[in-house]
Amino acid sequence: MKPVIAIDGPAGAGKSTVSKLIAQELGLSYLDTGAMYRCLAFRALDAGLTVQDGDKAAELMEDIHITFGVGEPQPVFINGEDVTTSIRTPEIGEAASALSQFTPVRQRMVALQQELVRGGGVILEGRDVTTVVAPDATLKIYLTASLEERAKRRQHEFIAKGMEAGFQDVRNQIEQRDHRDINRDDSPLKVADDAIVVESADRTPEEVAAKIISHLKAKLQ
Ligand code: DC
Q: How close is the Cα of 208 to the center of ligand 1, in Å?
């Protein structure tokens, strides 16, 4: 059985960057579960729903087929339409976080994600992948850093994409997102019992990736 690596942790901890590096290094496919929630949020807002319409949003899932391409940034498609850039705005991030609190949404997402992980050879990242989506993963990592550090990183990401982002605004957004993700009733963000906590502050993405790969090697021995 090919390995499954699950990377959990709060917003801005570096999960995506590090997961992509590991995917490349080990020849695994990369599953960005947050992008799937973002796709749903994008479609829901487009259809005129609000972030309170969790049940209706879950029904929309029946008509949405999400696929990923290869590249940087990783191309994302809804029913063949390229939404790579449109799903990365702060508004869609907020809406994804709000809609992800609804159990019918989560149930459908988790079923889809488990289907994608079934064959192994995958690194997946998101807030519940170690606790709910892939509790039997070969390696479970909780990647974290302080709020200040994560806000700094997110701010740089936004600026690099040409978006305006004041530090205090980004910090507040992340703090709110943490609060919501940690306190939601269904599958809250938490450290799985058998997850290894990895601190990403003061380390480059390459160093974090190397650390996780060394944990995988130790696990497989
Ligand atoms: O990782 P991200 O910022 O792209 O995720 C957007 C939101 O989606 C996040 O705030 C919560 C939700 N999400 C989730 O509930 N479970 C996941 N596995 C991934 C994301």
A: 21
State the residue range of the domain holding 139.
Answer: 4-220
State pLDDT tens for residues 38-79: 999 999 999 999 999 999 999 999 999 999 998 889 999 999
Angstrom distance (rounded) from CA 156 to CA 83: 22
What is the residue with the minimal CA distance to atom 20 of ligand 1? 34
Cβ neighbours of residue 32 closer than 8 Å, sequence gap 6 or more: 16, 19, 68, 74, 76, 124, 125, 126
How many separate domains does the chain show? Answer: 1
- 127 Cβ inside 6 Å of ligand 1: yes
Contact present, 26 and 37 (Cβ < 8 Å):
no
CATH of the domain at 49: 3.40.50.300
Kindly report whether the global pTM for this prediction surpasses the value 0.90.
yes
Number of helices (H) and strands (E), helices first, in the chain? 8, 8
181 in contact with ligand 1, CB cutoff 6 A: yes
Give the residue, by CA position, lying nearest to ligand 1 atom 10. 97
